Amino acid sequence: MVWGISLGLTTTLYYLSIQYIPVSVGIILLMQSIWISLVAEAVLLKKLPSKGKLAGVIIVLLGTTLATNLFQNNNALDYRGIILGFGAGISYALAIYASSTVEKELPSSVRSQFLVLGGLLLIVAFWNMDIIRYMQVNAVPWGFLIAIFGTILPPLLFTKGIPKTGIAMGNIISSLEIPVSTLSAMLVLQEVVSGFQWLGILLILMAVIIINVGKS
Question: How much of the chain is helix, strand and coil, in % rounded to 5?
Answer without folding.
Answer: 75, 0, 25
